[in-house]
Design a protein that fits this description.
By secondary structure, this protein is α+β, with helices and mostly antiparallel strands. A five-stranded mixed sheet has the order 1-2-8-5-3. A three-stranded antiparallel sheet has the order 4-10-9. The chain has a two-stranded antiparallel ribbon with strand order 6-7. It has a domain at 53-268 and 334-391: Cytochrome P450 (Cytochrome p450). Strand 6 (289-291) and strand 7 form a beta hairpin. It is built from 17 helices and ten strands.
């Protein structure tokens, strides 16, 4: 990924690229340019998340099975512009207040403890463990399940559907099948909550259906889907990349475990150094404008490359170096502006719970393969590893 980013950056901070299916788009790689693009301009907006502004879509050039179409056509927070976006965001916002997040802390601690316990037999047998599959991803999907009140019998479909959304290398047929299975599982869960509400985010939203024009069943289904998608693989990548970074930077790892570097600093630097949402689709130009020396025209599609922005040499000294002792903790790991990630506090809580617990339980954890042989996960939307093979210490197993 970063080799591609470097090649693109040689042409400037905003570059013309080709997406799957040969569809053109601009990709924004510069930190300052990304911040400028993401600013809210209610009076004279440059860009919109509304697909109705996309010239290629209007012209019928986007196939119905285009793999990224599901990121642009669903009616919800992710694709809404102000002021509608504010109404939709306010519907889910109570779930992410400091008080509600604090109430989730014991649940997340238990999820982490349970996942660590499942690793114990492999640790004692000195087996190689794929930490991404067995720990980094299960923690956030179980936490999101607890937040939403996902029934156990639907959890598998929720994970499979979320996986398909991020993997742009799967066939269109497989992506669509798994996506529609996810939507079906969400509908089943919502129907159950309508019949028998519980103490969870889905039930809270069900109870207020229809109290505002924007609070429709369709939007509720999309809000649940977005919560799953936004809180699952991205947080898994955060945990994955933090483990990878500390495993490949022993001097920083020693300082962290000695209490000389905070976990907050590790998390912030990971979000900068390994942007967990690498390319986030999609925005569309409302009118002609110039950005970073590029002339963008009304109707053009735009990707924000958060991974590239995090390693912008115009913003950061030695951007390719993982250094949690940096004076500046700036990053765009959770976005910027009106679409700043609503679930950021939950993601940080999960990482701050999972990482110290993991290294406390297995202080001698080490990568089981050469760094060069550990592949990136498929697709270009998120930034993690396809697997994270490790040896675990049994010191405290």
């Amino acid at each position: 990924m970063y080799g591609e980013i470097d090649r693109l950056r040689a042409d400037g901070p905003v570059v013309r690229v080709e997406m799957p299916g040969g569809l053109p788009a601009w990709v924004v790689l510069g930190y300052a340019e990304a911040v400028e693009l993401l600013k809210v301009r209610n009076r004279a907006p440059w860009v919109s998340k509304d697909i109705a502004y996309w010239a290629d879509f209007i012209a019928g050039l986007v196939p119905a099975d285009w793999p990224l179409l599901m990121w642009a056509i669903k009616a919800g927070m992710f694709t809404a512009d102000p002021p509608r976006h504010r109404d939709l965001r306010s519907w889910a916002a109570p779930a992410f207040t400091p008080r509600r997040i604090k109430r989730l802390a014991p649940v997340i601690e238990q999820i982490v403890a349970d996942r660590l316990n499942t690793l114990a037999p492999a640790a004692q047998a000195a087996q190689v463990v794929d930490l991404r599959a067995e720990f980094c991803l299960p923690v956030p999907i179980e936490a999101i399940g607890a937040l939403l009140g996902v029934p156990d019998d639907l959890a598998g479909m929720f994970r499979s559907g979320a996986d398909a959304l991020f993997d742009t290398s799967v066939t269109p047929e497989d992506a669509q099948a798994r996506f529609f299975a996810l939507l079906g599982a969400i509908e089943t869960m919502v129907d159950r909550k309508i019949a028998d509400p519980g103490v969870d985010l889905t039930s809270d939203m069900v109870k207020t259906l229809g109290t505002k024009d924007a609070y429709t069943r369709e939007v509720l289904l999309e809000t649940v889907r977005l919560t799953i998608v936004a809180g699952y693989e991205t947080t898994g990548n955060l945990i994955d990349q933090a483990v990878f970074a500390l495993s490949t930077h022993p001097e920083h790892r020693a300082a962290v475990l000695a209490g000389e570097i905070s976990w907050d600093a590790v998390i912030d630097e990971t979000l900068r150094w390994a942007g967990i949402a690498a390319n986030l689709p999609l925005r569309f130009a409302v009118k002609d404008f110039e950005l970073g020396g590029a002339q963008i025209h009304a109707g053009d599609a735009i990707l924000v490359n958060y991974a590239g922005a995090g390693r912008d040499p115009a913003k950061f000294d030695r951007p390719e170096v993982f250094d949690p002792t940096r004076a500046s903790r700036e990053h765009l790991g959770f976005g910027h502006g009106t679409h700043y990630c609503l679930g950021a506090p939950l993601a940080i809580l999960e990482a701050k719970t999972a990482l110290p617990a993991l290294f406390d339980r297995y202080p001698d954890l080490s990568l089981a393969e050469d760094v060069a042989t550990i592949p990136a996960n498929p697709g270009f939307i998120t930034n993690g590893h396809a697997r994270l093979p490790v040896h675990l210490s049994t010191t405290r197993a």
